[in-house]
Specification:
This protein is of the alpha/beta class. Helices cover 25% and strands 23% of the residues. It comes from Vannella robusta.
């Protein structure tokens, strides 16, 4: 890009993964700032996993690859048993995120690449699109030279399921067989004493904060996700907002009397709810229902306590 004074301009992106430590996040920000000072006429932009802007993603075509765990120094990042979840709606935003290699992490709306040492499988769900299929082929070619096994949902064979442990429940509802997954997420919070609702166009599992509630508009259903540390007023207002949202009618927002409101407690999300997120971290979901504050609240509810517990 060029500034008005013909000086070269730069964008310095620094990307932070879900499980990056606080120290690494701080160091990445400092490093980006140091680079910006040297280049001058530059802009520093923080990017978090699963919320990458298109311009950032365009530098990694034909697909962005995100691996689990620490970056290996010598070991092949594609060695061992691995499962990559591929999702995208165009040639820029398609990406492959590694997830736990279990059947429950499959999604009929997307494509996957399953690696087990010398075997590579491409699994195409019934609702996967052309961009996802093309990206899965490219990723498989990077992992192993030679023959790659391409299987389609419903015709996998025993070898495929054996690598995943067994054939189990996963997102396979018929509504996900056609078209790309579309949903809108609303963050509901009253941490400052005033109930507010924010619409998030791009969202990830990290937006599910234990102190808040969330409304996920999935078309035929409105999921009301209840954070483990959300107060009673926030829960009540969130469910009330969900009903008003369904009843609201305008030229662009038709009334949906058949739409169902489904309450979901943190840590007990059904696979259909998980389907709207690109990869689902089971450990993070479990932690969200077992937070420190939740334990304190449970202990406070026990009437046999001899003395009140101190606040943290």
């Amino acid at each position: 890009d060029q500034a008005g004074n013909d000086k070269p301009r730069h964008i310095i992106y620094f990307w932070q993964g879900w499980h990056a430590s606080r120290e690494d996040k701080g160091l990445s920000a400092l490093l980006a700032g140091d680079v910006a000072k040297r280049l001058r006429f530059s802009q520093v932009v923080r990017v978090v996993q699963n919320k990458e802007p298109d311009h950032f993603l365009s530098h990694f075509a034909p697909a962005t690859i995100v691996c689990l765990g620490k970056r290996p120094s010598k070991v092949d990042p594609f060695s061992g048993k691995r499962l990559y979840h591929i999702r995208g709606t165009n040639e820029v935003n398609v990406s492959a995120c590694e997830t736990i290699p279990l059947a429950r992490n499959l999604n009929t709306n997307d494509s996957f690449v399953l690696v087990n040492n010398m075997k590579v499988f491409i699994w195409n769900g019934k609702g996967s699109n052309a961009y996802e299929k093309l990206a899965s082929e490219w990723l498989a070619s990077r992992i192993k030279e030679g023959e790659v096994y391409e299987v389609f949902e419903g015709d996998e064979g025993e070898a495929f399921w054996e690598i995943l442990g067994s054939k189990g429940e996963y997102v396979s509802q018929e509504k996900f067989h056609k078209g790309d997954i579309k949903a809108v997420l609303f963050e509901c919070t009253n941490t400052i004493g005033v109930f507010k609702v924010y619409r998030l166009e791009e969202f990830s599992q990290q937006d599910l904060l234990s102190k808040n509630c969330v409304l996920l508009d999935a078309g035929d259903k409105i999921f009301a996700w209840i954070g483990s540390d959300a107060n009673e007023k926030c829960k009540e207002m969130t469910l009330d907002t969900a009903q008003k949202y369904i009843d609201f009618e305008s030229d662009e927002h038709p009334k949906r009397p058949a739409c169902e409101i489904v309450s979901v407690d943190a840590g007990y999300e059904p696979v259909e709810f998980q389907a709207y997120f690109h990869t689902w971290d089971i450990k993070s979901a479990a932690d969200s229902r077992d937070t420190y504050q939740s334990k304190i609240n449970q202990m406070r509810a026990v009437h046999t306590l001899a003395s009140p517990l101190p606040s943290r």
